[in-house]
Amino acid sequence: MPEVVINGLIEGGKATSGPPFGPALGPLGMNIAGIVDEINKKTKPFAGIKVPVKVIVDPATKQFKVEVGAPPTSALILKELGIAAGAKGKDDKVGNITLAQIKGVAESKAASLYGDEKSRVKQVIGTCKSMGVTCEGMDPREYLKKIDSGEVKL
C-alpha cells in the first residue's frame, strides 16, 4: 500500500483524536495518540494560531512523519497585536505594530517569504496594509517609503 497523506488545519498544540486526523488514521491501524502527541509537540509554538499540518503515513510499516507548515502572515500579525481580526472596512485601523514585531513575524515566515530580510519585512508590511494595521504609527505605504529611502534602518 502506498503512503497516505492527511492534511488538516490545527490550532497550535490542540490536535485531538477527532477530525481531521483521527477518523483518517483509525482505519490504517495507526497509533492515533502517538501521532496526535507528535502534532501537538510540533505545533505548540503556534498556540492560538491555526497552522497547516500534514501527516504522511506508511500503513505497511506503521511509520509516520508530521510536517507543520507556516501559519498565515495575517495570523502572526493578529497574535503580535493580541487582536482577533483585521479591519472590516478599508478606512478602519485595528492596531499598530512595531518594527521589532514586524521583524519577528518576517523571521517566523522566513521559509515561505521570498528574498532578503528587507524584502520579507516589506511583505509583512504589505499584509499590515490590507489588515488595517499601522506601522510605527504611520500608514504602511508611508512606512515602506521610509524603508526604501533608507530613513528607517532594518
Question: What does this entry look like structurally?
Answer:
- Helix 3 (73-81) runs antiparallel to helix 4, helix 4 crosses helix 5 and helix 5 (117-131) runs antiparallel to helix 6 (140-149).
- The strands form two sheets. A three-stranded antiparallel sheet has the order 1-2-3.
- With 154 residues, it is an alpha+beta fold.
- The chain folds into two domains: 4-68, Ribosomal protein L11, N-terminal domain, CATH 3.30.1550; 73-149, Ribosomal protein L11/L12, C-terminal domain (Arc Repressor Mutant, subunit A).
- The model has no long low-confidence stretch (mean pLDDT 91).
- It starts with a strand and ends in a 5-residue tail after the last helix.
- The chain has helices at 21-25, 32-43, 73-81, 99-108, 117-131, 140-149, and strands at 4-11, 50-58, 63-68, 95-97, 133-135.
- The protein is built from six helices and five strands, in the order βααββαβααβα.
Write the layout of secondary structure elements.
Blueprint (H helix, E strand, L loop, with lengths): L3 E8 L9 H5 L6 H12 L6 E9 L4 E6 L4 H9 L13 E3 L1 H10 L8 H15 L1 E3 L4 H10 L5
Parallel strand pairs: 4-5
Antiparallel strand pairs: 1-2, 2-3
Helix pairs in contact: 3-4, 4-5, 5-6
Q: Helix coverage percent of residues?
A: 25-40%
- CATH topology call of the largest domain: Arc Repressor Mutant, subunit A
The CATH H-level homologous superfamily of the largest domain: Ribosomal protein L11/L12, C-terminal domain
Tell me the fraction of residues in β-strands, as a range.
15-25%
Q: N-to-C terminal Cα separation, in Å?
A: 51 Å
**What number is the mean pLDDT?**
91
Number of strands: 5
Class inferred from helices and paired strands: alpha+beta
Strand order of the largest sheet: 1-2-3
* General form: elongated
Number of discrete domains: 2
Question: What is the CA-atom radius of gyration, in angstroms?
Answer: 19 Å
Reported for the largest beta sheet, the result is: 3 strands, antiparallel
How many separate helices? Answer: 6
H/E element sequence: EHHEEHEHHEH
CATH uppermost class of the largest domain:
Mainly Alpha
CATH architecture of the largest domain: Orthogonal Bundle
